[in-house]
Predict the 3D structure of the following.
Amino acid sequence: MLVLMFEPRYSFPVDFARINSCIFLVLVSFWLFCGFETSAYFHLHGSLCTAEGLVHVVFL
């Protein structure tokens, strides 16, 4: 009973840290990619707040 109580406490933070690091890496890579695409689109076309800009960024 004691082992069953303490086992999730040790395994849960490890799994939670792995999930957090994976989410963090995905968000950072997505942010860098979208920032690069948005800046490239801004320099090429000079407009960010258009539907064409969003479609251009999404489909690249």
